Amino acid sequence: MVPEIVYHYCSVDTFYKIITNHELWLTDVSKSNDYKELVLIFDELEKLLAPNVDQIVSQSFVPLSMYSEFFKEFRKFNLMYHVCCFSEDRDSLSQWAMYAKNATGIAIGFKTRSFISLHNYNENIDFKPISYSIDSAIIDIKRKINSFVDIYTNDPESNNYSWYKKFISYFIDELLKIICLYKNKSFSQEHEYRIAVNSTPCSSDTNGKEISFSHSLIKSPVYLSDNYSIGAMSFFPSNGKLTSYRPLHINNLSTEISEIIIGPKCNVTEHDIKLFLLANNIDLNDKKIMLSNSTYQ
Fold first, then answer.
1. How many helices (H) and strands (E) does the chain have?
2. If both were cysteines, with which of 15, 25, 137, 292 could 264 make a disulfide (CB 3.0 to 4.6 Å apart)?
3. 0.70 exceeded by pTM
4. Whole-number pLDDT of residue 66
C-alpha cells in the first residue's frame, strides 16, 4: 500500500530552491549514487526474452537475426529516465546522512495522492516504490513478456513488421520501467519511492524497421494538470559532470506539503521555516514543522 506521505531529504540550499521556485527536480537516473542503475538486470532480460523469441520465431518465420541484432545494440540505446526520489521513512538517520548534507538539511513531507495520479495525465510518468529484489523484478519481467507473447499469438493480423514494431514499443517502454524502478538490495534501507519520467519514449517507422526515440518530452514543457507540469530539460554541473534534469513545477505547493522535518544538525529553526513558508504563500500548521528526533551529531 502506498503511504499517504513520502519524504524528500535535501540540503537547506535545495529546500530553498524547491520552495521559492515551486518545483522539484527530476534528474538523470544514470547519474545517481547507484552506478548499476538501469544496467543491473540487463543480463536477466536477455535470458528471459530469448526462449520466448525462439518460440515465436518458430511459429511465424520472423527472422531471428532481427532480435539478435536488436540485443547487440540494446545497451547502446540513448534511453533517458529522469527521477525524483523520496523515502517513506519520515526521520531516517541513513537518509539524513546520505541526502541531507550530513544531516544539516531538511526533509519535506509530500502528500502522495497527486503523485499517484500523474500517470493518468501522461503514460510516460510513474510514481512507484523501488524494488530491491531481483527475483521480484524477474517475476514482473516474465509477466510482461508473457503478456506480450499472448498479444502476438492471438493477433491474426500480425506479420514480421507489425510484430517488430509492437516489440519495440512494448518491450522498451514497458519493461524498462521495471529496470528504472529496481535498485541493488544494498540500498533497501532507503524504502524509496520515485517519480520516474521516460524522457525518450521509443517508436519505429511505418515499416517497423528503424528504431527512434522521441525527444519531444525533452525539448518542450509537458502540461499534466492545473497544478503540475514538467519543464524542458536543463543541466547543472556536479562533481565534474553535467547532469540533466527536468523541473516538475507545482503551481500550488501549499496543497502538496504535509510537514517539514528539520535535520538533527541543521542550523535552521522552526521559526525560520514558518516565516520562510509564509513568505512563499505556504501556511503550514506550526505542529507540522518539527525537529528530528535523531540525536546524531
1. 10, 14
2. 292
3. yes
4. 53
